[in-house]
Amino acid sequence: MISFDYLTIAYIINFILLSIATYTDIKTREIPHIITIIMLIINLPLGFYLFGFEAIWAFLSTLILCLILGIGMGGGDIKLFTVLAPIFLFAGTILYIPKAILILIGISAGISAFYPMLNILKKYWKEIIPSSAYLAMVLGIIIYIISFYNVPYAILFVWGYIILSVFISRKVSGYKEFTKKAGFFAPLYLIGLYLLDYNYFVNNQVLLQFLVYVGELSLISIVIYALTGAEISSKKLVKDLKEGDILRDIITIEGNSVTVEGANILKRFKLMVDAEMGKNETENKKILMTDGEGLYKEDLELLQKLHKEGKIPNELNLITTYPFVPFVLVGYVVVLVLHYYFNLF
């Protein structure tokens, strides 16, 4: 039974405000400033009343964390996590950041990543599943061999090879084709091991182990595919671009020369970090790229100008994005249910 104290009432009010923000985010991809202002007016004084200066430190430390995460997160999302921090101190803190907020961020990010990852699997499953079967077969064979020898840390080297293999398959088409075709020999591996060492096969549940490995390796492959440029993207005419659109392309302007280059997550992340440190731009060089906030008005004006001058193509690549606040709302509810009904915090 929930007792309706000040904190519980605040949680209910914040739930209503997050629900409104969810609606506006889905409809217009915007979070009204008035919502975060109301949440701040309620949460910060109440947090200070209930938890003292720890609530202030929670607010500031969460703001710093979210500004760091803001390399790939929208400003509205940063504000939501930050204004919730002062009333989420029931589980303690890590470096003054409420553990419950860290869990909330993790749940929100995990759910938001599910749909894009599912799309990557649907698009590349003919590559991912056979290659994962091949790697699971290699992993099973090596584990079988080292089970007879006490090789220290051997499994770490094996997994290192597995992950490296997925990266290489993304870059070397010949190796990718090899792993796809080799994966179809996995049933022969299972039958062969069954006939060769029945006791080992049964005692170690090799078939179940193989299926688990295929699942794990498929998940690893999806993540690596995303990191190396397999995000779900679409093309859009320059004249149709609007504020908030997130470019997958990076546009480098150096003197009169303009280059448009597609970039994966790793490269964009590096360039964003460099931009934060002031390394990207010089007097004669400007790099136009977008973070979680998307394109600004001045970016659109520059793109329109470059397009009229014939320096960029008619279409640019955009990263397909999804409203994030609904995932924050789900994470918010999950954290409170775990707290109130399961006493996990």
UniProtKB/TrEMBL annotation:
Ranges for domain Peptidase A24A-predicted C-terminal archaea: 210-318
Give the signal peptide range. none
Q: Is Oxidoreductase a UniProt keyword of this protein?
A: no
Q: Domain Prepilin type IV endopeptidase peptidase spans what residues?
A: 13-104
The name of this protein is Peptidase-like protein
Gene Ontology cellular-component terms for this entry are: membrane
Source organism per entry reads: Methanococcus aeolicus (strain ATCC BAA-1280 / DSM 17508 / OCM 812 / Nankai-3)
Source organism superkingdom = Archaea
Q: Can you tell me where the transmembrane regions are?
A: 6-24, 31-50, 56-73, 103-121, 128-147, 153-170, 182-201, 207-227, 321-342
User: Species lineage, top-down?
Assistant: Archaea, Methanobacteriati, Methanobacteriota, Methanomada group, Methanococci
Keyword set includes Membrane:
yes
The alphabetical list of record keywords is: Membrane, Transmembrane, Transmembrane helix
- What are the GO MF terms of this UniProt record? aspartic-type endopeptidase activity
